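Reviewer comment 2.1 asked that we show a complete input and output for one of the modelled complexes. We chose the aspartic acid case, as it is the one discussed in the main text.
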Amino acid sequence: MRSHLCGEINETLDGKHVTLCGWVDRRRDLGGLIFIGLRDNAGIVQVVVDPDSAAFVDAERLRNEYCVRIKGIVRMRPESQWNESMATGKIELVAEEVELLNASAPIPLLMTDEDGEEVRLRYRYLDLRRPRMQHNMRIRSKLNQAIHKHLDGHGFSEFETPILTKATPEGARDYLVPSRVHAGQFFALPQSPQLFKQLLMMAGMDRYYQIARCFRDEDLRADRQPEFTQLDMELSFVDESGVQDAAEKLVQAVFKDVLDVELPAVFPRMTWTDAMEEYGSDKPDLRYPMRLHSVDEHVSHLDFRVFSGPANNDEQRVAVLKVPGGAKFSRKNIDEYTAFVARYGARGLAWIKVNDAEAGIAGLQSPVAKFLDDKAWSGIAAQTGVETGDLLFFGAGDWLQTSTFMGHLLVRCAGDLELAAEGWAPLWVTDFPMFEWDEESGRYTAMHHPFTAPHSDSADELKANAATALSRGYDMVLNGAEIGGGSIRIHKPEMQQAVFELLGIGEEEAEAKFGFLLEALKYGCPPHGGIAFGLDRVAALMAGEGSIRDVIAFPKTTTAQCPLTDAPSPIGDKQLDELHIGVVTKK
Ligand code: ASP
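Response of the prediction step:
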């Protein structure tokens, strides 16, 4: 039907006849001349319809989003009308024939970034026509192709794993599917292919990958989706560096392929403890020129208990964040930051404005300056490298909680002051704690998942030191986002049993839920490990989008619904009967 794509038409086609198909992006009547922006997946081209042309009557009838086929001659625009920001900006198409392929009802959205998300998702097929969304979806497609190309060339095989399966514990609620054949029994949709990929290693498949859909029924936070896509990988006979090297090479190749970006040859490594200590986050954004400084040694001698208390307690800390140029913050700004950190449990946020760095304590403006002495201030000033015009925020208290709220503050201030350097800053965060203590249930939970190996090879040692045990887990972080996470796995049944025990999963429960895994571990399981990347997040980063919903063709809303198809929706009694389900509707 067409000779070219709209976005392909440029000055090299000057004087040529072309036939294009697409949608009317907009139509303007200018004193007899009609201008049409004709849009397809490759871009937009300007079409001019002359009043004398046979196409004029047809062009007059066109409205936005009408689907048309236009024949015409490419001609250079006068230089004064060149639009350098458009690939097609130096030319226009002089229409000779306009054929209406299909009219459109009036468009229920603006087709701009102004449209609200509900209406965008309701009419997703229209929203996706926009150049921004076309670009995003194509980035995603290129990303998938680049992954296949790289992994196919590096000894990986792609295997599918079941969607109708048994629960895999990744820490979320399962989506369940009732069995018609087995009354009262349910499949779970996979939260990840974790156990199957481990079984594939036990099956001798050596290197596996899959672009896999995962399902987690969580109370949705802004950036979660009930179904999302992982690039899932698993390798046999590897330690941490084996997985990390393979993952780094993949990410480097994919960024080169899709964005023509060279990532560093080796990504920096940072332990979880250092990441929390220096950035207050397990996903530090290395583009920010800011760190947390531990100033315990400078304030431990003070009478000021707010600082000296935590400074003298091994489980607490006093952390300082220097905000370059922050002395210009108003009282209102500071109050906002204080309210912000309160969300993460901070009971207060001390601050010091440095009005004159040369003048020592006399040059400071702060409610806490009077509690400092010269020794304390000179130590803090030297450590933080403070200059006139800077502001210091102080957080004090429990090590993890203080680190965490100061880390959020760091990200917030760096964002507000637009301090991020250009480019890409990947790193590995390693040596996570093996367990987290859950106050509510009074037991340990796995920080990664229950199949992650501890550093210790001995089950007894692990049991004796569970609170401080470190895992062989690692996350890949890019520009402050966790894009991938994985671990070396437990490959011995005794260790797997010990971990289940520590997690409060009794023998019977372990047998019922993971009996197949424990059994498989008995038959010469190879040492193995892997990683899974959140592909939606990677695609969003590549496309420069803040929300993963903008790189998913048909995402759910934040309340886990699809406004387009109206799912989830009630089903009829007959179907419910077949599934042996009775529905009780809460009044
Ligand atoms: N299955 C894990 C997850 O979804 C990733 C892994 O350990 O490979 O987070």
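The mean pLDDT is 95. We note this here for comparison with the apo prediction described in Section 3.2.
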